[in-house]
Amino acid sequence: MVQKRSGRVATDVEKPLPNLESADEEARGNAVRGLCPCHAGWEVFEGHVGEVLRMLKDPSRVVRAHALHVFEDAARMQLAADLSYYLEAGEERIVRAGHFPSIVERLKARRGRKVGRRKRQRGGAA
Predict the structure, then answer these.
(1) Taken in order 63, 69, 72, 77, is the CA torsion positive or negative?
(2) If one looks up domain 17-99 in CATH, what number appears?
(3) Rounded CA gap, 1 and 42, in Å?
(4) What tens digit of pLDDT does each residue of 81-103 get?
(5) What are the angstrom distances between the C-alpha of 41 and each of 4, 36, 49?
(6) Is the distance from CB of 77 to CB of 37 less than 8 angstroms?
(7) Which one of 45, 54, 67, 102 counts the least CB within 10 Å of its CB?
(8) Beta strands in the chain (DSSP E)
C-alpha cells in the first residue's frame, strides 16, 4: 500500500541478534533498539517483530522500554504513511472537482441573490 521510509539503514542487521539472548540488559536493550524501523528499516522490523514482542516481556525494565519504543516508532511511521495516503486521495478528489469560483464570482452571485430577494419582497408586498 504505502512505502515505508527508513532513515539510517543498518549495515549488518544480523550482528545485534545474538545480543538479544545476552545476560547483559544493556546489550539486550541495544539489540532491540537496533531493530527499530526508524534506524534499521521497515523490512528488518517486520522480519524480527516476534523477537521485539518477546522483549516486551523481558525482566529488565530497560529492555522493555526499548522494545516499547520500537513499537511506538513503527506505529508512528504507519500512521504517517496512512495519513499521507488518505490526504493524497483527498487532493485527487479536489482536483477532479474542477473549478472553484473566485471571490469575485462568489460576491457577484451573492449580490444577484440579494437583488432577487428584494424584487420578490417588493412584488409580493405591493
Answers:
(1) negative
(2) 1.25.10
(3) 13
(4) 887 777 776 666 665 656 667 78
(5) 8, 7, 12
(6) yes
(7) 102
(8) none
Is it the case that residue 11 has pLDDT exceeding 90?
A: no
Contact 75, 63 (CB under 8 A): no
Residue 11's CB is within 10 A of a number of other CB atoms, namely: 6
Contact partners, residue 67, CB within 8 Å, separation at least 6: 32, 52, 53, 55, 56, 58
How far is residue 64's CA from residue 70's CA, in Å, rounded to a whole number?
A: 10
**Would the pTM of this model clear 0.85, i.e. be above it?**
no
**What is the distance between the alpha carbons of residues 8 and 41, in angstroms, rounded to a whole number?**
8
